[in-house]
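A common beginner's mistake is to predict each chain separately and then try to dock the pieces by hand. The better habit, illustrated here, is to supply every component at once so that their relative placement is modeled jointly.
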Amino acid sequence: MTDLLNLAGDFPLLDRTVRGGKPLVYLDTGATSQKPAAVLEAERAFNSRHNAAVHRGAHQIAEEATEAYEGARAGVAQFVGADFGEIIWTKNATEGLNLVAYSFLNATLGRGGAEAERFRLNAGDEIVVTELEHHANLVPWQELAAKTGAVLRWIPVTPDGRLDLEQLDVISERTRVVAFTHASNVTGAITDTAPIVARAQEVGAYTVLDACQSAAHLPVNFAELGVDFAAFSGHKMLAPTGVGVLYGRRELLEAMPPVLTGGSMVEIVTMESTTFMPPPQRFEAGTQMVAQTVGMHAAVDYLTGIGMDKLAAHEDQLAGELLAGIAEVPGVRVLGPSSTQDRLAVVAFDVPGVHPHDVGQVLDDQGIAVRVGHHCAQPVHRAFGVHASTRASAGVYTSSSDIQAFIAGLHQVVKFFG
Amino acid sequence: MEQLYQQVILDHSRQRSGEGELQAPDGESFQVNPTCGDECTVQVTLAEGAIDSLAWTGKGCSISQASLSLMYEMVHGQPVAEAEQLGETFRELIHNRGQELDEEKMDLLDDLGAFTGVGRYSARVKCALLGWMALRGALAQAQPTQA
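With all components supplied together, the output reads:
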């Protein structure tokens, strides 16, 4: 099969060998992506020519650093259909999701004044999550419920690994928050967000979208999706580690109390009290990961240069090859949709009688890197009746020959342990 | 691959010894490997300073299951002190980056020497040691604290 994209040459790490000279076949992009030379170079150039503290200092380099930092915000905002002031830098998506939960907790404790009252949670209020969530979009809501007396409820998963949209009556008049994934990091299923957003809006609940897997692989526009909040990580979308984004509708961010407090986010500080800056600075206390934001800017420019539609088509083809190849390996069960319809090239599977660690070990011996374990999503594994799985996930640089090598490796696994 | 998955390990991962539960254990310990969710419980009863009976339940990879199975065969009926010494020696082997220990220790380890290759793969160290951590916990619980 001819690849729609042939970009592996842009990624220096993909050139290396592993386990005694075997060429690397990297199929663990769902965990973290490799970085193109353009991203590595952007970070290096910032650190070697423009590094200074942002939003302070009147010297030239400080101005350059501030422009690079805020320019990255503008670039990422455009990439996801947001306004400049709706993009908050975080360390990663986990921090972004926790930021929303902790801000709501602070509002519940009375912080943020009258305008933050809308975020208060009371005993008997409900928070709705889903069985498909990564722990990052589940545990913070369990914690918020435990601290406020709110009740946690969830949308179940269907046998083919999608959210069960027949069960949306879980969202009720008591629901205050609906937190759900845009695309599962286990089943690869892409969520039909419209009915969930519509139902949440009908009852006046805030929507929080985990866009970690989608932002790197699909065209994403948060304004069009109509969600209130969304979080994603740089490192899953060709950018460095240590940088992520929380998107929030401006009107909400303006009313929310801060979470981390200290330098860079204040107006007037007296010994008794403090006033806070407007968003996004209100949520960016302390010195930020400036070089990483510059790397993330380069990453979204790189992705935009390819075209997210073209990238999605490329990965759709790879998903088809993955599913077709796995289907020919005797006994292997895919945990997720068996067609490429509304599905990412993220395929978790179970080899009956062979533990995922053992599957991964035999693949690794052939130079093939996959993820093994529960992928930070234990409940969805439980729903499938397994406690762990093996997962192959593709990215912009993945080729058909990578998929072929993986399928051949999987046949080896079955032979070795058969 | 054959170096890691020695025949002894593959055999024990399929035909496991000692799986089960005890009615009234003197000590038991539950251990979990957070990276994969693998878990095991080891139960013991003691009599006259020896492990009178031992049983384990668990789910996990071939390395962890074979390690539990071999552990059962080698320590049940043995004096507690000897079982603990074997456990310490096994831990030393698994942390030895794939190299064998001295001849005396390899003799002591006997079939457990098949796990030597596991030490080359840092991600698998916990798999091999999970059951032995549970054994240590169960023995500690079973023995009255020495004042």
